Amino acid sequence: MTRRSGERVVVGLSGGVDSAVAALRLVEAGYDVHALFMKNWEDDDDDTHCTAEQDLADARQVAQQLDIPLHQVNFAAQYKRDVFEHCLREFQAGRTPNPDVLCNREIKFKAFLEHALRLGAKYVATGHYARIEPTASGVCLLRAHDGNKDQSYFLYMVGETALAKTLFPLGDLTKPTVRRIAEDAGFDNFEKKDSTGICFIGERDFRAFLARYIKSRPGPIVTTDGETVGEHMGLSFYTLGQRQGLGIGGVPGRAGPWFVADKDLEGNNLIVAEGIDHPALLNDGLLANDLHWVAGGPPAGEFRAGAKTRYRQADQPCRVTMLDGDGCKVHFDDPQRAITPGQSVVLYQGDVCLGGGIIRERITVRHDEAVS
């Protein structure tokens, strides 16, 4: 990381080990570092499920260790309006949203950035594993060196203007190295477990939490052959490709296992397929809208790329065709399993994250040819 003298940077200090080491590296590079602890979620069960109190204590220990100011801000109202309520609408429509992508766009690189600028910052910084590189026309978003931790997938909606004011101090480090640096620095959180699950749900039961906001509408679970094999609690509570929690017992003459293959919204049927490689789970492509391009626009014409339709997926070779309006068609070289409407498709060329969009529809070869 380039050494700077005296330029103010506000680092989002979450209480986790990643943001702690990010702050340390900024101090070592000579920046005027201020830390900001953000509270983005609160509800009636905070005392039971929210870790904010412990996270704040960990953030305070790091700030004291580094001798940097620690500010606090509550973005819960913005988060509920701009992230959570949008996610509820998506769940109610039978889709599966990605709150982390929206949180980065609306909170961490919008509300946080605006607040940091009011604190006199020239830059903001986070503990994300990603890299930013200047170009002739601006900046580009790159994968982190640690491919196992790279988080560029969750950052594709962040605009070039915000990225130009952002530092990612961990982009060239691996997670084991980060933990070792934190231990050597005397941070209490050096062994702290990484946060998992949907940010506003945390470790609690997904269905029980969602049922507080979305009314259950039970209906039949139906195989791809039309056989009823169980009952679902509401289509909003399931995602494509899901195996666990279907409650399907032994089906005579069928070995299973069963996976969610589709949702019949009109008939309120949850459609399941037998076996992980069932054709009903595979699709040749997808249609996406709500497109966002890091550099402001896509490559010219039809172009080749690598695509991820979920975070941990390896890049899948594909052809991307822009459509009239805010949309594109992605056709994969090989059929893909459990493409899920509501999730993001993120496009790469090498280490460069081009951008992406929200998956709205899965397509088969026949549908693909019809769209063409």
Automatic annotation (TrEMBL):
**Organism (species):** Natronocella acetinitrilica
Q: Which cellular components does GO assign to this protein?
A: cytoplasm
Q: Where are the residues marked Interaction with tRNA as a site?
A: 128, 343
Q: Where is this region: Interaction with target base in tRNA?
A: 98-100
| Originating gene | mnmA
Q: Which keywords are on file for this protein? A: ATP-binding, Cytoplasm, Disulfide bond, Nucleotide-binding, RNA-binding, Transferase, tRNA processing, tRNA-binding
Functionally, this protein is described as follows: Catalyzes the 2-thiolation of uridine at the wobble position (U34) of tRNA, leading to the formation of s(2)U34.
Protein name in the entry:
tRNA-specific 2-thiouridylase MnmA
Give positions of region: Interaction with tRNA.
Answer: 149-151, 310-311
Q: Which GO terms describe its molecular function?
A: ATP binding; tRNA binding; tRNA-uridine 2-sulfurtransferase activity
One Gene Ontology term of the biological-process aspect is: tRNA wobble position uridine thiolation
Tell me the residue numbers annotated for binding ATP: 12-19, 38, 127
Localization: Cytoplasm
Family listed: Belongs to the MnmA/TRMU family.
Residues in tRNA-specific 2-thiouridylase MnmA-like C-terminal domain copies:
284-359
